[in-house]
Write a structure and sequence with these properties.
The protein is about 25% helix and about 20% strand. By secondary structure, the protein is an alpha+beta fold. It has two domains: about 120 residues, N-terminal domain of MutM-like DNA repair proteins; about 120 residues, Helicase, Ruva Protein, domain 3. A hairpin with a 2-residue loop joins strand 9 and strand 10. It is globular. It binds a DNA duplex through helix 5.
DNA sequence: CGCCAGGCCTGCACGC
DNA sequence: TGCGTGCAGGCCTGGC
């Protein structure tokens, strides 16, 4: 589920509650995520003080001084603050218990997420060191996307979802940004000119920002750290809207598949 | 029952 | 030879 806007919404929601707080312990109920949760997480985290809450692409980075807890929410993960004494459910695999009593809970029904502990620079971890520019970085601009795509004959949509090109863009936001730029998702990336790359970067930033402003998108199970659903799904132009009218021209939105993933576009507004 | 779902890694066959 | 590419499959549960 979570793409960059949902992870960022989670980060912002948790930040004020976690910064400078001491961790009492971690409760691991199920280690069987995509990568096994470290067995000794309670010892690694116990008494650590959270210095900073960061994000790289779709990864959440909890800086504990002596090391960093890296979380990825996979398709169905969610981090939330336990209110009251809510008993752990079937898919609540991990709790971080703070010294002040606050409990941060990781729920991930499909278990595609992961929890890692790294010492030293977390950005050097093999899973993070190949990630491309953050979409909001100033240096991520049209000319960078243009040069990064010259050798890529794959479709622009699949290239946008390649984290080595740009961080954090998944299926929803690739579809939405391409619509906003009027680019056909099946167009070969290396056939897109500089002007359109510039437009695409502008619309990637714009779409992600609008989604963050809306608290992310809530499909199926996603809710933010405060338990509230985001509502960017109400602003989807094309995603999930096959055969509904294009918001710009009224032509029915077309749904196709690209590399096992659902793609949605307007056949009139988006050209090759 | 089969199919679908927001992620991402691996391995394979293929063509240049 | 060695890329990049396009697939398929795997990791899981739940909803329709």
């Amino acid at each position: 589920m979570p793409e960059l806007p949902e992870v960022e919404t989670t980060r912002r929601g948790l930040e004020p509650l976690l910064i400078d707080q001491q961790i009492r312990t971690a409760i691991v109920r199920n280690r069987a995520l995509r990568v096994p949760v470290p067995r000794d997480l309670p010892q690694l985290l116990g008494d650590a003080v959270i210095r900073n809450l960061g994000r790289r692409g779709k990864y959440l980075l909890i800086d504990c001084g002596r090391g960093t807890l890296i979380l990825h929410l996979g398709m169905s993960g969610r981090l939330w603050i336990v209110t009251g004494n809510a008993p752990a459910g079937k898919h609540d695999h991990l709790d971080l218990v703070l010294a002040n009593g606050t409990v941060v809970r990781l729920c991930d029904p499909r278990r595609f997420g992961l929890v890692l502990w790294v010492c030293g620079d977390p950005l050097l971890h093999p899973l993070l060191c190949t990630i491309g520019p953050e979409p909001f970085a100033e240096h991520f601009d049209g000319s960078l996307l243009y040069s990064a795509t010259r050798t890529r004959s794959a479709s622009i949509k699949q290239v946008l979802m390649d984290s080595r090109i740009v961080a954090g863009i998944g299926n929803i936001y690739a579809n939405e940004a391409l619509f906003r730029s009027g680019i056909h998702p099946a167009m070969s990336a290396n056939r897109i000119g500089l002007k359109r790359c510039q437009s695409l970067v502008t619309n990637i930033k714009k779409t992600l920002q609008l989604a963050i402003d809306a608290g992310g998108s809530s499909l199926r199970d996603y809710v933010g750290s405060d338990g509230l659903a985001g509502n960017f799904q109400n602003q989807f132009m094309v995603y999930g809207r096959a055969s509904n009218p294009c918001p710009q021209c009224g032509t029915p939105i077309r749904g196709i598949r690209q590399g096992q993933r659902a793609t949605f576009y307007c056949p009139r507004c988006q050209s090759r």
